[in-house]
Amino acid sequence: MTEALTLFEAKALDTFPEEDIRTLKRQLKCENCSNDEWRMLELMSTAYGLSPFLRQIWAVPSIGVFVGHGGFLTIAHRSGRFSGMETQSYNADGTEYRGGGHPAYSVCKVWLKDAAEPVTKRVFWEEFGEQRKGTQGRKTNWDKMPAYMLEKVAEVHALKRAFSISGIYCPEEMGYDEDEIIPLASVDGQPVEITRISKNDTATHTTHADAGACPECGGRPMPDIERNQVQAGFDNARFGTVPPGLCKDCATKLYRRLLKEGA
User: pLDDT of 146-169, one tens digit each?
Assistant: First the structure.
């Protein structure tokens, strides 16, 4: 049990100071998660004995909790019932896949010490590989190592079935590459890629105040992406929470004033 998990078990989220919660969220790269989503990460981390600080488990805003391939293997080994697994990819005609193009399907068999037959799961390229998602046009491991990626999906699904794992997902199940996690959002419950924005595009991005104007100068409140950056500076200097609705210029002025007063 890691220190992080002990921390999760020992204290409920609402007992942490707000500044500590923001710091933990930034360390785990889930600062845009709501407190409810963060709480689900805590619960799943504790339930399955996985550490978010080792990147075995993490939360994605509006989607849920993700677990890496290694995290599922950790659960299996820790059970004491895991007796090995075998995975192979095949062509559409049932012959063993040897490279070139992509496999039609992959099969994983998981052996349990107390079972006579292995738990078997077959996954198809058209269901997972065809849904693969690149990063701004770049190729991912789905393009470079198609069998490797499809076999990861087969193994995760077989491990889930063998060890009754629920409520957590691996990125590959949604067509992503664990080694190149893409920020996600959802529309009607379906995952979609977030469009990355430039500084010139922030006027169209959701703001923390949702509407209205900066209470100091009447300007446009900071978008969430800027507010998170400014809040990180406030936290490092122990200045507390950035007042809601401020524009970036007024927040910067406040930061400088607080620095001067503390000097």
Answer: 999 999 999 999 999 999 998 888
